[in-house]
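Bumping with the actual sequence this time:
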Amino acid sequence: MKKNRRLLTTEESSDARRLQAIWLKKKNALQLTQEQVAAECGWTQGAFGHYLHGRVPLNIEAVLRLAIALQVDPTEITARWPDLFESLSVLIKAPAR
């Protein structure tokens, strides 16, 4: 039985298109497969494919995991949550106490 999924919002669809464009650039440059990215993110290849093709909306955790795996800034994947990503960036770059 096919599960009824809600349609992605305009922002979520834009995120999926950005992710697809990044994937097309990075898969060859970094010599990656979907299986490798999925494993690095802690997912199955199918889960990565669902994010990649806009079947499932990206959430904050997914964006952060993908940004690390694809070696991009999270804001390249989504324009949502810019304040959160800026705060995280500051925390990551802060010297250890």
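The tokens above came from a reply further down the thread. The CA atoms of residues 7 and 22 lie 22 Å apart.
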